[in-house]
Amino acid sequence: MTELRNLCVKILKEFFGDVPSQIGSELSWGPKTLPLIKSALKLPLAKVKEGLVVLISNGVAKFEAIKEGLAVQYILLPERVLTLSRIPRYLATIENKLGYESKLLIEEVVKHGTISISQMIIKVAARCQAENPEEEVKVSKLYDDAVKLVFKEYLIRMPAVEDCSGNVPIFANTEENFKLPELNAKNIRAVVKGESSAKLPDHNVVWRLNHRRFDQDLRDEVMISAITKRFDAYAGKLMEILLKLMYERTSPWQSVSNPIPITLIKDTLVKARVKNYLYANIQQYLKVMENDSSRFLSTSIEGPNNITVNVKHAVESITHTLLDHIVAHRFGDKPRRIFRIIRSKKYCEQEQIQKIAMVPDKEAKKYTYKLLEENFIQLTQLSRPAATSGPGINKVFYLFHVNLDAVVQMVIHQCYQALGNAMSRRDHERSENARLIEKKNRIDSFAKSLKEQGQSENEIKEMLEDLMTPPEKTLLENVNSVFEKLSLAEEQLDDTLFILQLFQHFQRDAIKNES
Amino acid sequence: MSKRKASISVEELTNGDESPTIIKQEPVTPVKQEPFAKAPIVGLNEDAEKVLNLLQSHGTAGVSDDVIAKCYPELGPQDRVAIINKLVAAGKVGIFNQKGVLVYKAKDPAEGTQIKGSNVEEKTVFTIVKEAGNKGIWIRDIRLKSNLIQTQLNKVLKSLEGKKMIKAVNSVAAGKKKLYMLYDLEPDRSITGGAWYSDQDFESEFVDILNQQCLRFLVMKKEQLADKIYDYGPLEAQTLVSATAQEVLKFISELGISKVNLAEEDIKVILETLFYDGKIEKTLLADGTYSYRAVEMLLPPPGFVKMPCGVCPVIRKCSSVGLVKPKTCEYLTDWLKKESEIF
């Protein structure tokens, strides 16, 4: 787990600074109590407490009572830390789906970790006002958006504190995760306009991001884009509708949806006033998607007019494709062929592989052993007992197979490693070019102050032209492109990681259901 | 029983014509050739081969002159005599007197190659080799079956080879393993490896080219329809872009890239490799065969492999300390230096 540890520390450092990351690093070895953390870090108690508050309010750590309530220990949640780097994507999806104001609201929640709805609105309103002083802020619009975010379950309500007399506060045990508190748009508006400073009634009902809801959106995106790529945009649209209908009748993280009647799909299209090619050929589209090897859909057992969405299969198919790509890029096209053969045949002997793969003997062996060495495939030995095969003959069968869970786990770790690498390389580049970057910042702030003094753009440009030498300029450009490349790589790595984590999620669920 | 004769004359034949025919006449249809007949017979003209084929199709029942005359009316009595005598001389045909009627029977070609002077050992080994058919037999198995000692067996095999009665063939499965079979047999596909082997070497490039061309054909089919795909329903469109192995075979044959004649089975094997490449999908048709179509993968290449770490050969040794570390990583440096945008 070293990769994950390193990565978590790096992410914490980037998001929350030094102290929280040091605490995170301590906690990544296992749960610890406050005195233990303090003594390990040799920091003043106040700083440690502050850091812990940051971690806990952002949901990347939690606490629990031990020794019958006599002490409290703190626990780091590594998977939550990883979601921090996914936040830009969350913001992008929200802006796409619900608009700019919703994005600002979510941004505010991210900034504070937990926040009450009215505070959220007030802060966003203040920000909008600052950005655009001429326009009046539409508080009612923000209010509606905030309510919508709760209604759509993008925000989740933190449980209220019932009793905080002991060492550990006791939380109210309610199921109402998405119940809105008493809100008054008028009061909020009054505060925004500075007419009142009274405490709003919902100040102690705080909310945080509902990561699962965001992940659900991202998952839908992945599924729809996969279908669009395999078939066409109409099929993608159909998938979108199917998923929407699925959530009306099934909890979103079930591996198989409840049956969806075809007539309902048609009704949805009619309601959306879509009477195009898709509407005319809906049955055929369903058939084509059902027959495909990706197995996103299947006809329900309840009858041919019902369709079920196989989320688990879909995620599996996508993960397969992902691994295929990785094998192909790392080892080549023929190893990918071999990898796929072994996966689809379950257990496979060497001879069988080269026969199907149509690869020369030696090459096939080379690739197979390479895959084995890199842990993409596994080897099982089956030896026939000497008694049955006759004296002196001890026949051993060597069977190759793919342990998908293990492969996914391994690739996930490599993703952690790669993500960590990208981040530490970025840090390295930054410290290498620290002087240059500082100079650039100084010049920028100088230009800003000049602008405030009323100098014209051209004058400023001329004045600043000579402050940096041409080699410095090219160097700066290079450094910037390096930063850009690395952050883009980090973002894309997270896409890969997301799919693999989805796979693990459904696999874990399956194990849970079996037991 | 029937009595063997060395040759016939025209008189005998005409005599035979006059006597009542006892042999039951069967309708003669071209019968599928036996494996032995596959070997081309050297030194015989077309007519002789025709007659020989007819005789072989009747097997041990034998054929009277009448039947030959009926089947091949274009051959006169003189021609027939000439042909039969030629065949008898070549040892391909035997003449028998069956209840007063002359009957010709095709001899087993192996029998035909039996040369006088073979001793018991040679005969035994020959029979063992003959039994193995066109799959051949390994020298160790011959030794076990014949109970001959190695040196003696080597001598016998050498002598038989010298007489051109048997031959040694190398198998593609095990290059150094010699397999013995009768001289005029065509080795089985499992030994020669079929279309994919030339002199025991797997023709990797040939397979690759076929693989590419098959894919090109299927992709072409898809692209041809791309403009008017929405004139059809999706299911119909899918059928239109699909092709059976036979259609692919036709395309490949017309391309003329293959020197050997490819069978439908061969193309199926190639299509199977494409299927395992994830580039095509197959659908089971009602008659049990598959139709194939080109498909897109579900995902574009993931972000992981676009970065050097995703394809790094030493990622397992990578850490924040030591020789392999991200700060000084050559792969990362090269990648970051690259001007071209790879994303």
From TrEMBL, chain A:
Domain of life: Eukaryota
UniProt subcellular location: Nucleus
Boundaries of every RNA polymerase III Rpc82 C -terminal domain copy: 194-317
Pfam families membership: HTH_9, RNA_pol_Rpc82, RPC3_helical, WHD_POLR3C
GO terms of molecular function: single-stranded DNA binding
Keywords assigned by UniProt, alphabetized: DNA-directed RNA polymerase, Nucleus, Transcription
Residue ranges constituting the DNA-directed RNA polymerase III subunit RPC3 winged-helix domain according to the UniProt record: 323-402
Primary localization: nucleus
Segments forming domain RNA polymerase III subunit RPC82-related helix-turn-helix: 6-63
InterPro entries documented for this protein: POLR3C_WHD, RNA_pol_III_RPC82-rel_HTH, RNA_pol_III_Rpc82_C, RPC3, WH-like_DNA-bd_sf
Any single biological process term in GO: DNA-templated transcription
GO cellular component: RNA polymerase III complex
Family: Belongs to the eukaryotic RPC3/POLR3C RNA polymerase subunit family.
Subunit structure: Component of the RNA polymerase III (Pol III) complex consisting of 17 subunits.
Functional note: DNA-dependent RNA polymerase catalyzes the transcription of DNA into RNA using the four ribonucleoside triphosphates as substrates. Specific core component of RNA polymerase III which synthesizes small RNAs, such as 5S rRNA and tRNAs.
UniProt name for this protein: DNA-directed RNA polymerase III subunit RPC3
Lineage start: Eukaryota, Metazoa, Ecdysozoa, Arthropoda, Hexapoda
From TrEMBL, chain B:
Record keyword Transcription present: yes
Region annotation Disordered: where it falls in the sequence: 1-27
Residues annotated as transmembrane: none
GO terms classed as biological process: transcription by RNA polymerase III
Xref: SUPFAM superfamilies: Winged helix' DNA-binding domain
Role, per record: DNA-dependent RNA polymerase catalyzes the transcription of DNA into RNA using the four ribonucleoside triphosphates as substrates. Specific peripheric component of RNA polymerase III which synthesizes small RNAs, such as 5S rRNA and tRNAs.
Phylogenetic lineage: Eukaryota, Metazoa, Ecdysozoa, Arthropoda, Hexapoda
Species this chain originates from: Bemisia tabaci
Protein's recorded name: DNA-directed RNA polymerase III subunit RPC6
A Pfam family annotated for this UniProt entry: RNA_pol_Rpc34
Similarity annotation: Belongs to the eukaryotic RPC34/RPC39 RNA polymerase subunit family.
